[in-house]
Amino acid sequence: MTYEARVPITCDADIVIARQRGRALAAELGVSNTDQALIATAISELARNIVAYANRGEIVIAGVSRAGRPGIMITARDGGPRIPNIELAMQDGYSTGGGLGLGLSGTRRLMDEFEIAPEVGKGTTVITKKWTHRHE
Questions:
Q1: Crossing angle, helix 103-110 and helix 33-49, to 10 degrees?
Q2: In terms of CATH, what superfamily is 4-131?
Q3: Which of 9-18, 72-81, 87-96 has the weakest average pLDDT?
Q4: 49-58: string of b/e by CB count within 10 Å (b at 16+)?
Q5: CA atoms within 13 A on the CB side of 3
Q6: One-character DSSP codes across 69-111
Q7: How far, in Å, CA of 135 to CA of 132, rounded?
Q8: Is 32 helix (H, G, I), strand (E, B) or coil?
Q9: In the chain, where are the structural domains located?
Q10: Tens digits of per-residue pLDDT, 5-46?
Q11: What torsion do the CA atoms of 93, 49, 38, 62 make, to the nearest 10 degrees?
């Protein structure tokens, strides 16, 4: 299965679109309703960070496979200022925007794989994956 959706993120309305696309792909892949909700929440958190800290970016949602096991990969890219201290930003409760500070650390807990790559002068890329479970 080849599926990829790119959703430009510039405002709160774009967050809703990205959530809907992610949930639709997850359903197509046979992901449980519970995991669909986790994926939609992770997309919301990543997209909200783009709106709050970078003003613009994109969410890319793609179907992936590993050893015949389908999954979904969410890539969040922005061109904003890079995160100065990744370790600090990944701690629960840390926020520079006055929020609860659960965005990145919460997203890491919701997904099966999580990688963050800040690039000086180029913004931040977060890649997360959720794999389908065979017996749910």
A1: 150
A2: Histidine kinase-like ATPase, C-terminal domain (3.30.565.10)
A3: 87-96
A4: bbbebbebbb
A5: 20
A6: EEEEEEEEEE-SPPPS-HHHHTSTT--SSSS-S-HHHHHHHHS
A7: 9
A8: coil
A9: 4-131
A10: 999 999 999 999 999 999 999 998 888 999 999 999 999 999
A11: -150
Helices (H) and strands (E) in the chain, counts: 4, 5
Cα dist. 68→54, 65, 71, 131 in Å? 36, 6, 10, 11
CB environment 109-121: b (16+ within 10 A), e (fewer): ebbeebebebeee
CA distance linking residue 113 with residue 63, whole number of Å? 14
What pTM does this model have?
A: 0.84
User: Structure tokens of 95?
Assistant: 């926020």
